Amino acid sequence: MADDAGTEGSRFSRAQSYIGRRVGEAIDRLDPAKVDRAVAILDRAPATFVYGAGRSGIIGRAFAMRLVQTGLTAYVIGESVTPIVRKGDAVFILSGAGESQSSTQTANIVRREGAELIVVTGRATSKLAHAASLLLSFEFPDDDERRRLAPLGTLFESASLRLTDALVAELMRVRRESEESMRARHAIMV
After folding, report:
1. Each residue of 70-104: pLDDT tens digit?
2. 74 phi and psi, to 5 degrees?
3. 9-175: which CATH number, 3.40.50.920, 3.30.1490.20, 3.40.50.10490, 3.40.50.150?
């Protein structure tokens, strides 16, 4: 398949512009009251458990690390040292389609235990979305441009990273944290 780079600029340039635009639009459509509620849930929870499969899991791990650096207790579901979820805890699940068996099974356990379930998904009508205590949903067009410039779950994953990093910034404000206080909790790699 020939690339049309010669007529419209490089595919890289078009892709980064397209991804940035679509992700920005999706973040801007989030309800600010829901974002505030997510911050409140995360701030008051005795512990936050984060789950995502595949690339969503990578975003989740990055988020859990930042939660710890803001002074919160956070775990990644599936790690051997992760304790059990208890009533009052928060669980934060990232899933583009919201239909994976592992995500919906995790959500069912969370609801049974009485924890708050924050779901970030690309499908507001998914099984996982219906299980959420709080739903943060992104909507993205499914067009040829998306398939060419942001294949598979790229838009969801990019939006999830941007969302979780912005949630950390708001948690910093609420908790009166600074980059310096967070750096003191940053793991030192030898």
Report:
1. 999 999 999 999 999 999 999 999 999 988 999 99
2. -140, 145
3. 3.40.50.10490
